[in-house]
Amino acid sequence: MHTAPNGRSLDPLELHALLEAGQDALFVTDPSGEVVYMNAAAIHLYGIEDRIEEHGGRINLRTHSFEAFDVRTLEGVRVADEDRPVVRAMRGERYHDVELLVRRFGDDDPRVYVYSGTQLEGDPPLSVLTVRDETDRWRSERRYRVAFEADPAPSVIARLADMCIVQANHAMADLTGLTATELTTRSLTDLAPFYGYTDMLTIATQRLLSGAATHKVKMSLCTAGGHETVVLLSARAIEVDGRQCGIYTFVDITDLETEQRDHQATQDLLRQTVREHAGERDVMAYLAIFDALTGIPNRRGLDVRLAEEFVRAERYGGALSILLLDVDHFKTVNDVHGHDVGDVTLRNVAHLLQEACRGPDFVGRWGGEEFMMILPETGTAAGLYDA
Q1: How far apart are CA 218 and CA 205, in angstroms?
Q2: Distance CA 23, CA 39 (A)
Q3: Mind giving me the DSSP string for 204-237?
Q4: Which DSSP helix (H) or strand (E) runs through 275?
Q5: Which of 22, 302, 370, 375 is 20 to 30 A from residue 103's alpha carbon, by CA?
Q6: Which residue has the higher pLDDT, 109 or 82?
Q7: What is the DSSP string of 30-99?
Q8: Can you tell me the distance from the alpha carbon of 8 to that of 13, in angstroms, rounded to the nearest whole number?
Q9: Which residues have C-beta within 8 Å of that of residue 11, sequence separation ≥ 6?
Q10: In which order are the strands placed within the sheet that holds 228-240?
Q11: SS3 breakdown of the chain: % helix, strand, coil, rounded to 5?
C-alpha cells in the first residue's frame, strides 16, 4: 500500500489511476530491460502504440531505445551507449533531471527530454525511468539566448534570487571591462558601472518576481574607459535551466540625449531670434516655414526637417517614423459652425499634437486639416503605438 499526503493509504487501483494521470512518462523495467509497466504518457511520448500492439503488449525499452533514437547532449555530443538514460537506470544509478537532445531516426525534429532514474529493491530489482518533454521551454530559452547574444546593447542574464550573472554578452563585457566568463562570477550589483543604482536594480528584480517587467528607466553610467554614458534599463523575466532569471538590457542613448539638447538649443535660438528681429526680414523667413494660423511649422518647414532626419537616420542607422494625421469631417465643422470655429479647432489640434511630442519629435501642419508628426529614433511598432 502507498500513503497519500493526507495520511490515507492508496489502494492499487487508486495508485494506478494516479500514475496513469501523470504528465511525465514513467517506465518500470526488469533487469533485462523488459517493460513491466508504462503509463499512458510514456506510450505517447515514445510513440510506441503500434509497437505494443505488434509485440502483444510487451517491449524491451533498452532495445527500443537503441533501435529508434539518437541521443545527444544539448551541445550535440553523442551519448555513449553505456550512458543512455535507460541503461543507467537498469544498472541501478540514481540520477535526476538529466537534459538530453533526442531525435527519432527518420525525423529531423529533435526533442529535449529530461530524464530521472532510480531502482526499486526487490527480487528481481526493478528500474524506474521518468521522462519529461521540455522541448518548448528549451526552444524558448534558445530564442532568447540567440537574440541576447546578438543584441548590440549591453545585456546580462541574472538569477532573480540573488542577481548573480549566468550569462553576459560582448557589449556588457565592453561596458564593464570584464570578460564574459569573469562576469558570470559576479553579481549585477557588484559591477562598477552600477554602484550607484543598487536600489533601482533591486526594484527591477522585484518587479520581475511579481510578474511585471521594467521598461526604459534612465541611468547614467561610467564605462570601463571612464566615459559617461546615458542608458535606458529594460528587464524581462526568463526561465533558464529551471530557474527564474531576468534579462537586463542597457540601451545607450547618449547620442540621442546630445541630439535632443542640440535640438532644444536650436529651438531656443530660433525663438530668441524671432523675438529680437520682430518686424524685420527674419520674421518673413520665420513665417515662410511656420503656419500663421496654428503657429507650428508648415509644409515647407516639415520638408526641411524631414530632409534633416532622413540624413541623420541613414548616417547613424537609426529608426524614423512619420505619422500623417487628418481631421475627420472637418468640412462639416466649417459648414455647420463657420470658419472661425474651424480655425479654433485647427489651433487646438496643433496644440494637442505639440503636447504629445517628446523632446526630439516634430509636428507641423501639412496642409488644410492634415498634420504630420516626425518621430526620430522610433521604429514601426512604437510609431503605431504612439499613433
Answers
A1: 16
A2: 9
A3: HHHHHHTT--EEEEEEEEE-TTS-EEEEEEEEEE
A4: helix 254-276
A5: 22
A6: 82
A7: -TTSBEEEE-HHHHHHHT-HHHHHHTTT--BHHHHHHHHEEEE-TTSPBPPGGGSHHHHHHTT--EEEEE
A8: 14
A9: 1
A10: 165-168, 155-159, 243-252, 228-240, 214-222
A11: 45, 30, 25
Name the nearest CA neighbour of 311 among 320, 302, 298, 324: 320
Please name each of the domains of the chain with its CATH number: 2-133 (3.30.450.20), 138-252 (3.30.450.20), 256-386 (3.30.70.270)
Contact 274, 266 (CB under 8 A): no
pLDDT digits 0-9 by tens, 225-264: 788 888 899 998 988 777 899 989 998 888 777 777 777 7
**CA angle, residues 19, 21, 25, in degrees to nearest 5:** 65
Taking only the tens place, the pLDDT of each residue in 144-175 is 666 666 667 888 899 999 999 998 888 888 88
H or E element that contains 127: strand 126-133
Supply φ then ψ for residue 121, to 5 degrees.
Answer: -70, 150
Q: Is 36 in contact with 30 (CB distance < 8 Å)?
A: yes
Look at residue 135 and give its three-state secondary structure: helix
The whole-angstrom separation of Cα 45 and Cα 357 is 55
Q: Which amino acid is at 125?
A: P
Element spanning 157, H or E = strand 155-159
